[in-house]
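To whoever picks this up:

The parser on our side crashed when reading a file containing two proteins. I've narrowed it down to the boundary between the first structure block and the second sequence. Both blocks are reproduced below exactly, byte for byte. First block:
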Amino acid sequence: MKKFTSEMVDDYAAKLLFSLTAEENKMVLDEFDVVDKNIDIINEIEGLSEIEPMTHTLDDFAFQLRADEATVSIPVQEALRNAAKTEGREIEIPKAVD
């Protein structure tokens, strides 16, 4: 298995539109080392490759999709009537993230 490198971490960070300091990059690499060691321990479990992966945590999980039926909704102006501030068909809300 390929080990993560400092360059890989910087490249992934750049793709996510942020950058890391050298100290942060080292911290990420150290965390990946811990994850890799834990995966190695898991891979040592006898018979693990013979176990079928679960698709859901509950064995008796059953679901049924409802029929997709079109319904009449309220007019946009009525939906916007209780909003404190609007701009056209949109509701203006306070900024939540700096």
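<<boundary where parser fails>>
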Amino acid sequence: MSSTPNQEQDAQFAAEFNADVTREKLAAIYAEALCGACAAKAVPVDSVLEEFDSLCADILDRFPKFESILASAMVPEEEKRRIIEGTFQAASPTFLSFLKILVKRGRLDLIRDIHRQTRLLVDKIQGRVPVQITTAEKMDQDTLNALVAKLRSIVGGDPEITALVDPNTIGGIIVRVGDTVYDASIATQLKNVRQQMIDRSTHEIQSRRDRFRNTEGN
């Protein structure tokens, strides 16, 4: 019985999806190994993560051919090792050793995935939660602080805020925490915070007026 085009597409998607999952799991294992090496050698994990950030932003992003060479199965292991040692002479021993392990195991093709998983793991270890906030217009600092305080109780950590402005944002605000998007609920809470501030200010103004009137009457 021959398969239909839809079944063939489903099979291809499943294969690609499983490959992505496998890459993610492998990357997570290497990220844990890197963080474990930092802990074992009492090396600040943030400093190694900065080196990893620089590798991706300053080298791989700027020189895509270099990245292709590292990921290529056609380039011998010994040649990749010489490239790594020559390019990262100033790297810390911990990070350089980690890169050599990736060379030895033929996993330099996972380097961006490992970087992403390492950043997620370090954030988790240190209680940081990356949060992306998109608003229709730029928020003032008081409003942002109020939202961060509310988010802290929701995400169970210290929100690391990335603020974006998009005039087309529906509802005025969208908050993304990982794969979870908070829109109406957070917007309502923020509106309530604003309203409470307005009500408090109004109450204080009214109280002052009442006291002033009583003073005049006396």
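After patching the parser it read the second block fine. The chain is about 65% helix and 10% strand. Strands lie at 128-135, 158-165, 173-177, 180-182.
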